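Form 7-S
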Amino acid sequence: MEVRCQTVTVPPEEPPDETPRKKERPVMPTADEAAAEARPADERPVAMRYAIVMWVIAGVVAVVNGIDLLLRKQQLVDAWTRAKDPGVTNEQVERGATTLLWMFLVGAVVFAVLFALFAYKARDGVRRARIMLTVLCVVTVAFYVTILRTPFGLLTAMLAVAATVLLYLPSSNRFFAPRDLPI
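Output:
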């Protein structure tokens, strides 16, 4: 029995490339990377900065309104007791008032979070955030002018309207103008 060995020739290794390679960009950048490249932070108009602050303040005032109503619950219960239907007991008025005031407070907190979230997204020039803030403004004004007319509620509505107007000024419109997507 004969054993044969065959030799295999291996090409010589090439010396490693010493030239520094340029960092390759990914094919599709993340949304944050695209926004950072498309628009520098200092390009944001002053009206946008004020609008963002006003939306946050409107949310804080809405929460303060809910807390104020809870603190003045007994005054509200007394007023509602005098104007109640004869078939409703005082205990029912008090329980209903407590539930309603807590719902107002929770709703105010939810709206404050939405105000802050969409204001943060609008800060980056997201057009959908501006539209959502406009819708929230309409709902806020309708609620605080027709249903819960309190001083803090009206202040919240006025702040929301002023912030929305700032979002639609010409400088803000240019900031929200559609841009080409990165390739």
